[in-house]
Amino acid sequence: MRKQVVLLGAILIAMVIFGSCKKQDEATKPLSEKLFGRWSVEKVVTTTQTGTGTQSATQNYQASDYMDFRKSENNDVEVKLGANTSLGTFTTTVDQTLYLTIFGKSLVCQMDQITDSRAQFTGTVTGSNPKVTETYYLYR
Q: What is the spatial distance between Cα 28 and Cα 7, in angstroms, rounded to a whole number?
């Protein structure tokens, strides 16, 4: 009888311990944690703002085109768009800002949307004149 009480107590304690553990809520997860992994690139919309107006160009990509945000010491990102491949870096801030360096340019980006399966961010190319923004549409 005593063994059964001890066993029952151990089971109850285990249930309390494991039941109190919960996964981090998606809303409170840091941006970098949400980004890590490989994303397929659906399209990139490039907008150029000149003194005479705005010009936009959309480049659609194949399922084999990707951005791979790696959990590494340098926060590497590998990007393959068409025939071009680039190894760059990224950093994030608490206010959901993404700093991205790829293809020899730096972008300051704001996340427009991020879920488990879709991400969209718009980045301004640092130092561009006229002002150039790129909006990336990603999926998994």
A: 37
In the predicted structure, residue 22 carries a pLDDT above the cut 70: no
CA angle 109, 99, 31 (to 5 degrees): 80
Q: Is the pLDDT of residue 19 over 60?
A: no
CA distances from 60 to 6, 87, 106, 108, 140 (A): 63, 21, 21, 22, 16
For 1-140, where are the alpha helices, taking DSSP H only? 2-20, 31-35
Asked if residue 133 has pLDDT above 70, the reply is yes
| Six-digit token string for 135 | 């909006």
Q: Using CA atoms, how far apart are residues 46 and 133, in angstroms rounded to an integer?
A: 6
pTM: 0.80
Q: What angle do CA 126, 111, 67 make, to 5 degrees?
A: 75
Half-sphere exposure in the Cβ direction for 15 (13 Å, CA): 6
Query: What's the pLDDT at 18?
Result: 61
